[in-house]
Amino acid sequence: MGGLAVFPASARPFTDAAGRVVEIPERVARILAAGPPASVMLYSLAPSRMVGWVRAPTPAERPFLAPETRDLPATGRLTGRGGTANVEAVLALKPDLIVDVGSTGPTYASLADRVQAQTGIPYVILDGTFAKTAATYRQLGDLIGDPSAAEGLAASADATLKAVADTVATLPEARRPRVYYARGPRGLETAPAGALNAELLDVVGARNVAVATGQTGLATVSPEQVLAWNPDVIVTQDPAFRKAIATDPLWAGVKAVRDGRVLQAPTLPFGWFDAPPGANRLIGVRWLAGALYPDLFPEPLTEVTRDFYRRFYHVDLTPAQVDALLDGAAAP
């Protein structure tokens, strides 16, 4: 590891997902999330131990978060694109532990080593792969000394992913819709098959038309390309885009637009499909599977949503909140 930090005598070794051995205090009371996926996972498991949000919740997001967490300070992000936190700010928060959930590659390991050496605060990287969500919950629970709570969330994650995987595995190719994921207000940024931001399409057995780009990360395309792909369904998280393409002649010829199959993923308090690509997508995979195959997932989404928000987000939704969340998300 890069640099030596001073740890309490009672520290215990922990091997993180990047293979780094980090000394962890026996008692972890204050935790800093290094980026948005870590913030979501930490909030769902141990909201009382958070020292802040990566960014302050918006007025629209606040009602969907536990009251005691809404006014936590904005800490900035240590990891990923556009890091905004600095060493002085991290030290001022006095965390016992820094946790990142995401990529385990050398770049992120090097960043973790550097921050740990500069601050003397243990910095752990956990695997953010969607398929490993349950395992990561269990690892985080062990890390912070709360395995029981972590097991409850992990079991729920396991059950959700298994139910969807077992059902869509039986689908013939003809029943698997061709889907385009439209990012941004113009809908011309997308994520090809295998990309982190489009993992849910793979999980629900959809055929991601952007595989034709041949890229592995986010890609920018033209309306003409989308028209040539002619997807059966478009998924977006941007309500302005969804509204605009209904009357935009550039998109009028796309089958998904003609058939009214433009699905808007809910985003409060975190995106159901993306933004961030974290544990928040557990509710999204159940939503998308039900939207694409309503006959195979007949359980009302309203009940699924209430249960998820109670378990993972620590809030009891009102009927009006559920209606607001699901506006635009239902299959026609």
Could you give a short description of this structure?
The protein is an alpha/beta fold and 332 residues long. The chain contains 12 helices and 11 strands.
Describe the protein.
With 332 residues, the protein is an alpha/beta fold. It has a four-stranded parallel β-sheet with strand order 8-6-10-11. It has a three-stranded parallel β-sheet with strand order 3-4-5, sandwiched between helices. Strands 1-2 form a two-stranded antiparallel sheet. 36% of the residues lie in helices and 12% in strands. It is built from twelve helices and eleven strands. It starts with 11 loop residues before the first strand and ends in a 6-residue tail after the last helix. Strand 4, helix 3 and strand 5 form a beta-alpha-beta unit. It is globular.
How do the helices and strands line up, and which of them pair or pack?
Blueprint: E1 12-15, E2 21-24, E3 31-33, H1 36-45, H2 87-93, E4 97-102, H3 106-119, E5 123-127, H4 133-144, H5 147-168, E6 178-182, E7 189-190, H6 199-203, E8 207-208, E9 219-220, H7 223-229, E10 233-236, H8 239-245, H9 255-258, E11 262-264, H10 281-292, H11 301-313, H12 319-326
Parallel strand pairs: 3-4, 4-5, 6-8, 6-10, 10-11
Antiparallel strand pairs: 1-2, 7-9
Structure summary, number of beta strands: 11
Can you count the helices? Answer: 12
- Output the helix-strand order: EEEHHEHEHHEEHEEHEHHEHHH
| Main sheet properties | 4 strands, parallel
Beta-strand content estimate: 5-15%
**How would the global form be characterised?**
globular
Straight-line N-to-C gap: 53 Å
In spatial order, strands of the major sheet run: 8-6-10-11
| Low-confidence parts | 1-8
Helix content: 25-40%
